[in-house]
Every structure is written in C-alpha cells, then in structure tokens.
Amino acid sequence: MIYLDSAAVAKLVHAGAETQALRDWLDERAGDRVDEFGSG
Q: What stretches in the chain show pLDDT beneath 70?
C-alpha cells in the first residue's frame, strides 16, 4: 500500500514537470505487497 500526500495527488491530477516520473514510480510498485502491517 502506498500513501500519497496531497501534493502527490495534485501532481497526478495536474500534470507538471515531475508528473511522469511519479507515475512511473507508482507503476513500478503497483505489484508490491505488504505481508505484515508496517513492514513496508
């Protein structure tokens, strides 16, 4: 699970200079899972 702050969410909605990099980072981690609460 990935938590996004309001600035990251806004960056996804309103494309800016780093929007594609953020989308790429999120896509790379789309399949990550957390086996134990807080284990990252």
A: 1, 33-40
